[in-house]
Amino acid sequence: MSRWEPNARGRLEQAALDLYRERGFDQTTVTEIAERAGLTERTFFRYFTDKREVLFWGQERLRELYVRTIETAPESTAPIDTVVLALEAAVPVFHERRELARQRQAVIDANPGLQERELLKRAALAAAVTEALRKRGVADPVASLAADVGVIAFKTAFARWVNSPDEPDLSQLIREALDQLKAITRDDR
Amino acid sequence: MSRWEPNARGRLEQAALDLYRERGFDQTTVTEIAERAGLTERTFFRYFTDKREVLFWGQERLRELYVRTIETAPESTAPIDTVVLALEAAVPVFHERRELARQRQAVIDANPGLQERELLKRAALAAAVTEALRKRGVADPVASLAADVGVIAFKTAFARWVNSPDEPDLSQLIREALDQLKAITRDDR
DNA sequence: CAGGTGATGTCAGTTCCTGTTATCACTATA
DNA sequence: TATAGTGATAACAGGAACTGACATCACCTG
Known about the structure:
Strand content of chain A: under 5%
Oligomer: homodimer
Distance between the termini of chain A: 72 Å
Largest interface: A-B, 33 and 32 residues
């Protein structure tokens, strides 16, 4: 038998999510999270830089997927379509864990501090996408604008997807959001 | 002579900005800020909810200006153009204090925690704009998408404006960013 | 089997932030 | 003009988030 139970990080993540849901983020202490995971406060801070980060650790995986998808997209693809390709490549990640996504989002929506962190993570993803586009030779203002537009489309689609009673296709919603966005920016008054 | 020096809030703002610039945000303690302003740590927290907020207090003014401008815009104006009207109405606010904006932005750019707060404030502005559009009868996904597009255009323009050696017109830059954004979302591959 | 390694625990300390109560100049009113 | 507010501030105590330093101890490696 090993000295330590395996998967300390996972246990901490689970304990944190559970507690945040049970009594709210502010009313949960890091010591409590660690205790429930059978660990120490100090150990929590070895795995996560702060109390919020525990809900956002998965974003790293997403970033890699986005960047890889953009790198391998056909050369001729337009910037905005490259971004959409990346967003769609990540859709299964969400479909696989819809319930988890729902719970997590409910916690975030209930706390401004967590919303801040979510926005920062989103911005980091946009920056990674921008950088990946630049490497494909997309010029500078275009690259970041395309990334930002993609983020908006995803955000809009995700907000609808995560709380619908039925289970719509996230890709579909992304495309719809993008179409509406295109309609808005068109000069037809 | 009055018991207290006037403009406690302003003194705290100034002291905070100075110290954040001198030694960085993390290396500055709230007690130090208060001392420099001739006040107490406790008093700092009466004026500002937290250590970051001191840099963002002005946003409230901006929000009001945006909302008012949208409320008084001609009925026939398209959503995206209504948003641009609001953004342009606020341009003088920035032109008036370019140096302050520059210093403030440099501090924010050097600290992730401050970037989080900036993103949250930006999201709050977008939400206010969305709400103002809804009150004009703009349907739901369109209102928030138009607000978000406006925010992106402004962000892009501001980033260029705040650090250019010459003094370009912010309105001009906003329109340019929006034009590029329109080009990106157009279906011409 | 000695010594290194890595995950964890222990402990002490700083800073952010909050609640509570006390001052005290100024103001309104009797 | 005495008195009772009122509002901005100070003083103090305390909780919780985080950090640094060092100890422990199962496991691995030669």
